Amino acid sequence: MSNEGEPTATGQGPQPESAPVIELNTTANGRVSGKGWKLEKAATRRTQMSSGLKTPYEERMDKTQREKSLKKLQLEMKEEKEGEVKRRREITIARKKAALERQQFEEMKAKMSAKKAARLKRRAGRSKKVNG
């Protein structure tokens, strides 16, 4: 005999043997919000570790070494440039000083030759040959 129409031992009415099983969409815990545009939520990841500590020690040391060498190179280039500017400035100052000395010498020479010419003129005026 079949039990299709008779109540079961639990007292709930007849149970069909081939009840359709409804599949849920595969989501977290089988729940579906019904809103397709919503993203699946995940736990917030908060870390107290700084971003520098997240990279391996060797990489940090390599980066530090590269930065040091770059700074050293920049400093050398800057000092070389400043040295060149200083050298050119000293050359310019020396040229100006030499030109000033030459100019003062010429002025002194002109002044001395004028005095000498005046002295010779006075002397020539005293002689008997010129006066008389």
TrEMBL record:
GO terms for biological process: rRNA processing. The keyword Nucleus applies. Residues 1-66, 109-132 are annotated as: Disordered. The keyword Nucleus applies. Keywords: Coiled coil, Nucleus, Ribosome biogenesis, rRNA processing. Residues 112-132 have a biased composition (Basic residues). It comes from the Eukaryota. Residues 56-66 have a biased composition (Basic and acidic residues). Belongs to the CGR1 family. Involved in nucleolar integrity and required for processing of the pre-rRNA for the 60S ribosome subunit. This is rRNA-processing protein.
